[in-house]
Amino acid sequence: MQTGSRRWIARAAADAVPAILLATMFLCFIIQVFMRYVMDSPVGWTVEVCVIAWLWILLWGQSVAASEYDEIRFDIVYSAVSPAVRRWFRMIFSVVIVGIYAWSLPALWDFVTFMRIQKSSYLDIPFNWVYGIVAIFSVVSILRYAGVFWLAATGRGNGDAVLPVTAARKDDTP
Fold first, then answer.
1. Which pTM does this prediction carry?
2. Which of 18, 63, 67, 97 is 20 to 30 A distant from 12 in Cα terms?
3. CB neighbours of residue 78 within 10 Å
4. Quick check: helix, strand or coil at residue 72?
5. What is the pLDDT of residues 149-169, one digit of tens each?
C-alpha cells in the first residue's frame, strides 16, 4: 500500500470517530424523546452517553481529526506579516503549547488514573475510560505542536495553513 493511500485511510478513520459519536448522540436523543414522551418512562443512560460522546467529539476532533488548516487564528495579524514573522509566530506558539501541555501532563495522568475508582451512574463505565481522551488530547497535541515547531524551525513549513483574508473572501463569494 502506498503512503498516500495509507495517509488517506488514516485521515478517514480519524474523521470517522467524531462522525460515529455524533450519530450516536443523535440516536440517543431520539431514544430519550421516544421514551419520555411516548412511553412516559424517561431513561438516564442516554444523557450520559451524550455527555461522554460530546467530550470525546471535542477532544478527539481537535487533537486527532482537525488539521492545522482547521485551527482558528488571528488572520488579520497573521496574514499581514511577512512569512518570516509567521514562522516565528508558529515557533513561539508551538513552544508555549508544548510547554503548557508537557507541564500539565503528569498531573493530568494522575487525575485520569485516579478516576478509575469511580464509575458513571448509569453505564458503570470507569471514569478513567471517560477522561482518558484528555490524556490522548494532550499527548497528540504535544506531538503535533512539536512537529509544527520542527517544520517552522527548519523552514519546511510555509506558515500558510490559512488563506489570506482576501483570498478567503474571494472563495466565499458565489
1. 0.77
2. 97
3. 18
4. coil
5. 999 999 886 655 543 334 444
